[in-house]
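The protein record filed here:
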Amino acid sequence: MIISKSNLQVLLVTKNDKIPVLNNIHIRQDGTTIGSNGKTILAVSPVGEEVRATLRDRIGDDALLVDGVTVAEETAKDVLKNIPKDVQFKGLLEHCNVKVDGESERGVEFTMTDGKRPKVIKGKRWVRNYIQFEEVFGRVAKTRKAVQVVLNRRRLMSLLEAVDKACPDSSGNSAVYLEFSSENDIVVRSVNYTNGQRVMGVMQSYKGTEGQWLEETEWEKSLSRSVDSVKEDVQSVKVPKVSCKIPKAKQVGIGGYWEAEKNI
């Protein structure tokens, strides 16, 4: 199964925990990746078929287990570190193929390329069941309130980072209090329990065309369904096509490695 560098970013919400399963990321059989720290869950959708078709003959595109595969955090970090940064081919090389290592009971194998030759990284996988993330997404889907606010992501991150630095919390609770105005602007409040100071931030939401709501896709709806039900209709989940042209691949030299044609 081909996944991208973006898929591996779910690592950022995993946690070294006394609950071992949280020290892993899960790759569902459709290529969706899941990460969790027990309080937060992050899912990233599968790679588009156009990219998979281009890379399939170069790094492979193996089928995962019926229930997907759960990869150890240390292995995922190693893979993420080794995926090359690709500006020349608009991110095409920032992908890898993941498959279960048939020679190892708990092994998993990742194959990537720098455009010249493939590179294989072998690591560990978690062989027990992953957390029941479908239940969480299902509960949220049924109970979430119709508050729709569109924000600039980077400005929001900068605001929350500033609040975190102004109100450090060694306990790890780091509570932040959110409210919304009648015009859907966001109000962020917190308190520094060491010195008693408080912070309060206000951030404008997008309005007009920029504030147009992002409609839910079939993939997002599928997150609340069990593995057994998803595997039956996973082919029907449409992934938006990438906007850039994908360079065509050609074989080079005796070794059969590949590079992407530059003038497309």
Summary: The longest strand covers residues 118-126. Residues 128 and 159 are 39 Å apart (CA to CA). The chain is about 25% helix and 25% strand. The helical segments are 5-8, 49-59, 73-82, 133-143, 153-166, 218-222, 227-233.
